[in-house]
Specification:
323 residues; alpha/beta; eight-stranded parallel barrel; binds ligand PBG
Length: 323
Amino acid sequence: MTDLRPRRLRTTPAMRRLVAQTHINPANLVLPIFVQEGIDAPVDLSSLPGVQRQSLDSAARLAAQAAQAGLGGVMLFGVPREDKKDPWGTQAVAEDGILNKALESVRAEVGNAIVIMADTCLDEFTDHGHCGVLGAGGVVDNDATIEIYANQAVAQARAGAHIVSPSGMMDNQVAAIRCGLDAHGFADVGILAYAAKYASAFYGPFREAVACTLEGDRRTYQLDPANAREGRLEAEIDIAQGADMVMVKPAGYYLDVIADVAAISPVPVAAYQVSGEYAMIKAAGERGWIDADAALRESVVSILRAGADIVLTYGAMELVGER
Ligand code: PBG
């Protein structure tokens, strides 16, 4: 038997670089951006170190920096004024709703230099904080909600989104949105479906970021963390309904789901390193318990290694050496 010595390929940095299977490519990273109504300078988020809520102007500047840095995309979220929230999330569809205005502002600034994505969901806009409208007994009404998503997607396309991203986990949301976009002349606007989105405790800091008012939970629409098979089923359904890309979310604790979906998906697979995943790395780094830069890099490499083609992360700019 030959003396097998795999360590030969680890001897020098150049050797390790030569044989590295996974690389972080800026073009495959997407930066989430929160845009808040009624502010004129960025506001820090205490639970997401280094991340801020942007004004309409600063969001456009940040998107331009992201494009300059070679990132693949930006994902926009809206934070409306508290008194503009209502049970139906009207501001999600309104032309002058904060997210639609932000899309317009970003598109005017960057054009087609970077892919502009929009979160297509009602939770930022409803006063009860759920991702859809409520029916009898306070349960989210699936079919009434997807009609609104279709209108929201059309408004976002009109405002300049290249990609709309339904994140509410309603059944048939992709079909409804595709139908709405096509009927309004937006056949070229794509859909990134949050296909396997789990009811996760790791969304905590995001809820602060968008000032979400939810009481209760989303367990009747988001997936149970115990279930892998269901994640794959949801991806299959979204692909069948015309999703141009599918997403797994969160990312780092769901690498098996990413691998499963990547194995069957004929379309690109995205993964969202969510607020809690990012905040934990930052918090431990601030205490000097881990090297946050190295941990961020390792976590994103792991998500790519599992099979993701695209990664959404709050660390996108730092990963490409900006900030
Ligand atoms: C829902 C939405 C959520 C996130 C993105 N889109 C929150 C939720 O489902 O409660 C979470 C993102 C993150 O935690 O970074 N529109």
